[in-house]
Amino acid sequence: MPTWKPAPDPTDPDAPAHADWTSLPADLLAFWRERHLTTLTTLRADGRPHVVPVGCVLDTDRRCAWVITSGDSVKARHLGARPDGPVAVCQVDGGRWSTLEGTARVLGDAASVAYAEQRYAERYRVPRENPARVALRIEVGAILHSRRV
Hints:
Layout: E1 3-4, H1 26-33, E2 38-43, E3 49-54, E4 57-59, E5 64-70, H2 74-81, E6 85-93, E7 96-107, H3 110-123, E8 133-145
C-alpha cells in the first residue's frame, strides 16, 4: 500500500507539517479530481467512529481537503467538540481507493465557506443554498492509496 506523508516545512519551525504537494503522483491527483463520493469518518465522544457519505475536494493550492456540511450536522458537532480532531476521508472505485488521514476544523466564516463551495462545485456541482453551511478544512497528514489509482 503506497503512502504519501507530508514533509516538515523547513522555513517555519513552528508551523504544522506541510507537504511537498508537487511529489504527489499524477494518477493519484487525477483520481481525486474524478467525481466520486467519499466517506468521512469522525469520532464520537466515546471514541467510536461515525462514518457518513460526503463530497470531498483535495485542494493542492492550500494543501488541505474540504468538505461542506450544515453546521448542525453530527459530523460538524463531533469536530466542534474536538477541534483538530482526527478524521479520515476515503473514496473507492472498484479496486482503486485512496484515504486521506488528518485532522479537521469547522470553519463558519463566509470566506472559508464560499471557497469550499467553489471547490466543491468544481468537482461535483453547485451546492444548494444552505445558510447554515460550514466548511470542514482537513489538514492532510497522509494519503494512502491502492497501487493503481
